[in-house]
Write a structure and sequence with these properties.
Number of helices: 7
CATH class: Mainly Alpha
CATH superfamily: Rhodopsin 7-helix transmembrane proteins
Number of strands: 3
Bound molecules: retinal
Strand order of the largest sheet: 1-3-2
Distance between the termini: 58 Å
Structural class: mainly alpha
Radius of gyration: 20 Å
Number of domains: 1
Mean pLDDT: 91
Largest sheet: 3 strands, antiparallel
Length: 260
């Protein structure tokens, strides 16, 4: 059951959903228009960026509607209307966008196709598993269940970090010097933005055990909105910057390996 919210609390979430929707929409236009500015081998990375923000934009629109429907203004307070607030939109969104975000990273590095396929498969699979395992905890009413599924979900998350920083690391070392720095940075940005999600997920642990106080509900929605803008729009722009740098600076393009 949702808690009653003050006008300020309700509006903060309402306005942030609206802002996030706008950010996704604007990013979509940017990624579509920016495509011709990068060499053909990096265009798939920009197409994936555009898909990510399109899928997320649609879901934010639905989340926004669900939020408006879940509350009614009565005597200066927003009271639950009885219609549930649908948290599943967020997780369905992640299920589609999170594998695409790792695929973007692999695409912009431009590894040999066989290696790229293997990395994408492993990372996207683990990312999907992480989201699926997190969901039962997100909707749980008690913090014990939340902790348990959060723990299961952290295992594929750690696997992703492991693959990115060990196995992918050695593939990156074979990139030209300038490109290596860019790719290391984007990998750190991915880790930093993704690391924000489990922190938001843990906010209810700060509450009094009843998972859904007003401040907890507001903080979780605000946290996920900010994380989504940085991890999808900001990250996409950084992918674009790498693709652009690799397009204009020939030094950054790996020499084709013998036998490729
Ligand atoms: C655009 C959406 C993105 C990048 C979502 C990323 C989500 C995560 C990295 C979520 C991770 C979680 C854990 C590692 C444990 C607790 C449950 C999750 C699902 C919040």
């Amino acid at each position: 059951m949702l808690p009653a919210l003050s006008i300020g609390e309700y509006s903060l979430v309402y306005n942030l959903f609206s802002f996030t929707f706008a950010a996704m929409f604007a990013s979509f236009i940017f990624f579509v228009l920016a495509r011709p500015q990068v060499a053909s081998q990096y265009r798939s990375a920009l197409i994936m960026s555009a898909l990510v923000v399109a899928v997320a934009g649609y879901h934010y629109f639905r989340i926004f509607e669900s939020w408006s429907g879940a509350y009614m203004l009565i005597d200066g307070m927003y009271q639950p209307s009885g219609q549930p607030f649908n948290d599943a939109y967020r997780y369905v969104d992640w299920l589609l966008t999170v594998p695409l975000l790792v695929a973007e990273l692999i695409a912009v590095i431009a590894l040999p196709p066989k290696q790229a396929g293997a990395f994408t498969f492993r990372l996207a699979g683990a990312a999907a598993l992480m989201v699926i395992l997190g969901y039962p905890g997100e909707i749980a009413a008690d913090n014990g269940t939340r902790a348990l599924w959060g723990f299961f979900s952290t295992l594929p998350f750690l696997y992703i970090v492991y693959v990115l920083f060990t196995q992918l690391g050695s593939a990156i070392e074979r990139q030209p010097e300038g490109a290596r720095v860019l790719v290391r940075n984007i990998r750190l940005l991915l880790l930093a933005t993704w690391g924000f999600y489990p922190i938001v997920y843990m906010i209810p642990f700060l509450g009094d055990g009843a998972a859904l106080s007003a401040s907890v509900v507001v903080a979780v929605q605000v946290g996920y909105c900010i994380a989504d803008v940085v991890a999808k729009c900001g990250y996409g722009v950084m992918i674009y910057a790498i693709a652009r740098a690799k397009t204009t600076d020939k030094e950054l393009v790996p020499a084709p390996a013998v036998g490729d």
